[in-house]
Please model this.
Amino acid sequence: MKNQLLIPILFFSIACDNPNGEMYGDLEVFENLMEVPNTEQPAPPQEDVSEQLTKKVVKTGGLDFQSEDIEKDYRIIREMLPQFNAYIENENQTKSVHRISYSLTVRVPSGVYDTLYGSFSNMAYRLDNKYSNIEDVTERYYDLKTRIKNKKALEQRYIQLLDKASAVKDILEIERNLNQVRTDIERLEGQFNYLSKRVNFSTIHLSFYEVLPYVYDSSQRPGFGARILSALADGWQGLLSLLVGLATLWPFVLLTVGGIFLFRRVRKNRKK
Model:
């Protein structure tokens, strides 16, 4: 009786899972499933009620502060992390004439996030910015987990059908759908693993800096002789620029000279 009910159920399930809406034409594939003993039928997975009630959150925080001795604070942070099983994921250092700064991304187990976050806050010489965020991802976490479980169950059904299929058309169609299901499983597992890492390890962004005292650097200022030579070179360049500018005015100079010449000649003729 159970085997007779299994045929329409599997037939309807595969028809729904098929993205093209096509049913396999060879009914022998489904009829052969009746030969599978009841003891080999996969049992429905048992839900873990306690795990369903576990809240999943992602904690993210950050601190921006001024340091009195940045190298000392950086060393303290490095020595502090192993005590919390934390580690630096990203690190960046910048230095200029006026300041030196560090930018760190720290990953810490969620259970000790608050303790480490408080320790970092106490290190600040002057706190510029402080923020902390808790994101509830419980629904998304268990949704991905359920979708992966359903996809894997569908994968097993396709494998079972593939073992019983005899027609080439059915084999090719089952393999195509099986490959698609496995691709979906890999994609969902990637999302689930990334989300699980964010749940298990919280993130703290640290940005701290030290203002450096002003130091006059006389080596950057040229000597007297160098400045004299630079002035002479600038004057020569200015003279050349003037000559070049005058050269561009030669048509106007030629017209002016010609006009003066004609004016004097006309005036001379009138006197005669």
Observations:
- The first helix runs from residue 2 to 17.
- The CA atoms of residues 27 and 207 lie 66 Å apart.
- Residues 1-44 have pLDDT under 50 and may be disordered.
- The two ends are 143 Å apart (CA to CA).
